[in-house]
Amino acid sequence: MTDILPHLPGAAAVLCYHGVSADAVDPDVQTVQLPAETFCEQLDQLARSFELVPLGVLADHLSDGRPMGAPKAAVTFDDGYRNVLDVAEPLLRERRIPFAVFVSTRHISTGERFPTHVLRAALHTAPPGEVRLPSVARAYRLGDRASRRQAAADLLPVLKAADLRTVHRLVGELRGLLPADDWPEVDKRFAADAVLDWAGVRALARAGAEIGSHGHDHAILHERENPAEVRRQLTHSKREIEARCGPCRFFAYPNGGPADIGPYAARQVQATGYRLGFAAVRGLLTAEAAPNLLPRIFAPAEAGRLQARLADAAATTDRYLSWHRGLSSPGRQKPPAGAAPDRAALAGRYRSESVARAYGTRAPYPPQVDGILLSLLGAGPRTVLDLGCGPGTLARRLAPHVQRVDALDAAPEMIAEGRRLPGGEHPAIRWICADAEEYDTDERYGLITAGRSLHWMRCETVLPRCRRLLTGGGVLAVPRTTREVPWRAAEESFLADWATSRPARDVTAELVRQGLFDPWGERSTEPVAVSRTVEDYIMSFHAREAFRVEDLGPERTRAFREGFRELLRPYARDGVLGFTVLGRVTWGRPA
């Protein structure tokens, strides 16, 4: 791996691990546990190519401007799992590799599992049947393993986008899916996710580990979190670590992606007295890096992919630098509640012929979605407004069954593609190229749909406008799909290496919390079997904002496709992949 950093001399790599397990784990629940054998292989690879140093050495180089010299790397762990002491520490000690552990102090004090663990464990062990989670306006029907995976995949981004109060309510609801007496057995079954206690943290400190803060409650310090809560997370955890273990000089942002760190939190890391703050944004640490927003690289699940991940971090360092400069800018303002950051820029990224063409390869909405939507029209006027229609995925299917569909999108490329596709010239469709925030008409609609589009709209503007455009009994419906693929874990890890931006989030629960949307009901479809050629499946990802061909560039696009083909090869038969798609529709009135 000696050629990983050829064009970034003097750079350093900071690796992020979570847990290291000597036993087999359930990949659907214990998603952050790395097998000990894989961990050893990665340590040995790193030792052959880097000088492995404590975080303090990197801090000294950053503070006094001294050149890094030989390529350096540091090993860090997030959360504070017990197996870091029991399994990882002996392996690191044997190799004389220094390391740091970022702990969430409330979980260390109480022994409580992390919210993401509770979510997965509850959904995968709860009795079959319908479950309702009112704190985030979600309902699921749990049955086989596939339905539980789909529920977890849908709920996880909702949990990570929520403020701390909502997280606590949701965790309580999830724990209530099982009798209280069942949880000790569940914890035993998933023992690898057990957290350290303070005696264990002190044992790590005595062994030479640097103990840093991962917040008090593992709260994600995004812009939606209350500033007072941000300060509490930073100060309380630092004081508790210093009282129990010694100096606490470093902080790691929970989750740590670009959407998980608000400008206020970034400033407070410095104000609270932390020497360095670590994100989870891919890139290498250079002299230009901001001390409170340093990049880290999530270690891959397979030893053979470590070199590729490090090489990609080197290639994306400029993008990391651009991100931290934007976040650190004094003039950066917090977007209004409910708005996606820089909506105009995000929406503009869909104004691309390549994205419009790739839309046709995405997994379709199950046919039952059409029936659910049409049933919502009731006895009112059979007129539909499809907001952010893209190439008319919904509009072209609904047109034969209604009086009129107004298909609205801000991207002329999407409108042109929709007209070209089958059904695009149906007389009931009226194509409209306009921004959802600015569209106004004397028409009134019995149904407004917004599929795959709300995440880039200014919802505090769009939803009140929708309310005015609806008839008295009309509703806003948000259809969504979830793919169930046997290669999910490998795919998620692969895509994390290549994404040029954070994936779009499901904003429905967020809108409910903000009082912008009053949900009336939700229905799911039966899973539908879908087949796609490997090439079409790969192409469908170019329809996503995070994987645009224009952003990847020709060379990285080729490498992305080649790597994806290799990942999918074991799952394809004669070049064709089979998987299932579940649809869900939530409807209600804009508040």
Major pleated sheet: 8 strands, mixed
Q: How many H/I helical runs?
A: 23
Number of domains: 3
Q: Termini distance?
A: 56 Å
CATH names the topology of the largest domain as Rossmann fold
Regions with little confidence, pLDDT below 50 for 5+ residues:
330-350
User: In terms of structural class, how would the helical and strand content be classed?
Assistant: alpha/beta
Q: Determine the strand fraction and express it as a percent band.
A: 15-25%
Q: Class of the largest domain in CATH?
A: Alpha Beta
In the CATH classification, which architecture of the largest domain applies? Answer: 3-Layer(aba) Sandwich
Q: Indicate the mean pLDDT.
A: 88
* Whole-angstrom Rg: 24 Å
Shape descriptor: globular
- Residues in helices, as a percent range: 40-55%
Q: What's the number of extended β-strand segments?
A: 20
CATH 4th-level superfamily of the largest domain? Vaccinia Virus protein VP39
Protein name: NodB homology domain-containing protein
Keywords: Signal
GO molecular function: hydrolase activity, acting on carbon-nitrogen (but not peptide) bonds; methyltransferase activity
Subcellular location: Secreted
Describe the structure.
The chain is α/β, with parallel strands linked by helices and 591 residues long. Helices cover 40% and strands 19% of the residues. The protein is built from 23 helices and 20 strands. The strands form five sheets. Strands 13, 14, 15, 16, 17, 18, 19 and 20 form an eight-stranded mixed sheet that branches. Strands 1, 4, 5, 6, 9 and 12 form a six-stranded parallel sheet that branches. Strands 2-3 form a two-stranded parallel sheet. The longest helix is centred in the last third of the chain and has 20 residues, at 549-568. It is found in: Secreted. Residues 324-343 are annotated as: Disordered.
